[in-house]
């Protein structure tokens, strides 16, 4: 089954489109505070963000689901992404489906990540028929852990980060057990 676009109370969640969404991703990825727990804390260059944007679109092509661009309905602004994808950067769990979120700092503190994440969890259950979702999070990324916990995820394990020194935490949500 495939994932559709979704409208929530305040957000429009749309299939990733390179032409439409690369500029917002480039602005987001250029913010040091937004990448503090990603890419060794180094902001992405514009070509790196463009390549990442193409990978987001390719994931949709290949799997029928992926990361949504998140647009604030009231302003029309694209503030980042949320959605479902295979964490290909983490081979041990790459067969699983991860819910992810990354928003521009100017949009933090509004509950947008939780609102979009809740839609992703619902779609994982109803549209994709998944029984389990994961979230892979840096142990110091308190804001991301808080989103995962608000959505009902529990910490399942801690292990070595696949690409750098330090650890990474695996959160999981068993969808069959949630209403
Ligand atoms: C992870 C990330 C998306 C979390 O953003 P966030 O704004 O803290 O999370 P939410 O959108 O769910 O907002 C929750 C906050 O909004 C507040 N809020 C305000 N209005 C709200 C409303 N109407 N509804 C719900 N919450 C609201 C909540 O009280 C909460 O504030 P608090 O953090 O002071 O408790 C953000 O920090 C981010 O993009 N980080 C960089 C990328 C990243 O690290 N991604 C995760 C990789 S694993």
UniProtKB/TrEMBL annotation:
Gene3D superfamilies: 3.40.630.30. It comes from the Bacteria. GO terms for molecular function: acyltransferase activity, transferring groups other than amino-acyl groups. Residues 28-177 form the N-acetyltransferase domain. It holds the Pfam family Acetyltransf_3. PANTHER family: GNAT FAMILY, PUTATIVE (AFU_ORTHOLOGUE AFUA_3G00765)-RELATED-RELATED, N-ACETYLTRANSFERASE DOMAIN-CONTAINING PROTEIN. This is GNAT family N-acetyltransferase. It comes from Solirubrobacter ginsenosidimutans.
């Amino acid at each position: 089954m495939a994932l559709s676009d979704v409208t929530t109370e305040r957000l429009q969640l749309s299939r990733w489109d390179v032409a439409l969404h690369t500029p917002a991703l480039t602005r987001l990825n250029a913010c040091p505070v937004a990448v503090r727990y990603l890419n060794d804390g180094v902001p992405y260059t514009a070509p790196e963000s463009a390549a990442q944007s193409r990978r987001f679109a390719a994931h949709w092509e290949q799997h029928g689901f992926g990361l949504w661009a998140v647009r604030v309905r009231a302003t029309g602004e694209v503030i980042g992404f949320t959605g479902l994808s295979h964490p290909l950067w983490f081979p041990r769990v790459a067969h699983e489906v991860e819910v992810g979120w990354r928003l521009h700092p100017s949009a933090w503190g509004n509950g947008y990540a939780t609102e979009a994440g809740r839609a992703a969890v619902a779609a994982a259950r109803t549209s994709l028929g998944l029984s389990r979702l994961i979230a892979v999070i840096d142990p110091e990324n308190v804001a991301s852990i808080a989103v995962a916990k608000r959505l009902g995820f529990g910490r399942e394990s801690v292990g070595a980060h696949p690409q750098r020194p330090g650890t990474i935490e695996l959160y999981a949500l068993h969808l069959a057990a949630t209403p």
